[in-house]
Amino acid sequence: LPSISLVHTTVKGTNGMNTTPAERYQIILDQANKVIRTAQRKAADIRQPINLTVVDSSDTLTAFRRMDNVCTASIDISMTNATTVALFNDWTTAPLYNSSQPLGGSLYGLEETNGGLIVVEGKLPILVKEGIFIGALGVSGGSVQQDVEV
């Protein structure tokens, strides 16, 4: 991803526990658009139209792009992919998938919560170089492998 500058106020250390919204890092529109442009270029390189969603760390929609000729059903999938990462403070697919499996999964049924989550690939947390979570990218429109590649 392109380097992005950070806009923030005083931070106590993370976006999670013991912080107020004013103390948290958040992706801004310019940063979200850079992420989307980068992902869109990759989708064009592999010749696969994609829906791209960026939310901030509190799961507020920051930017969305629907490429031409992409399946409209995947709009919701890209948004839910981004939401899943944001609601779990940057957890990605592997821990969610492994924890949501029926045999011994401590989070079995997780995908049924919060109006529906997705535990398949096609999502990434957006972190600043300090490792602080500022948002999430959700991708959908191609095969799972194409979504991951984008």
From TrEMBL:
SUPFAM superfamilies hit by this protein: GlcG-like
Pfam families assigned: HbpS-like (PF03928)
Protein's organism: Didymodactylos carnosus
InterPro entries assigned to the protein according to its UniProt record, in alphabetical order: GlcG_carb_metab_protein (IPR052517), PduO/GlcC-like (IPR005624), PduO/GlcC-like_sf (IPR038084)
Protein name in UniProt: Uncharacterized protein
Lineage of producing organism: Eukaryota, Metazoa, Spiralia, Gnathifera, Rotifera
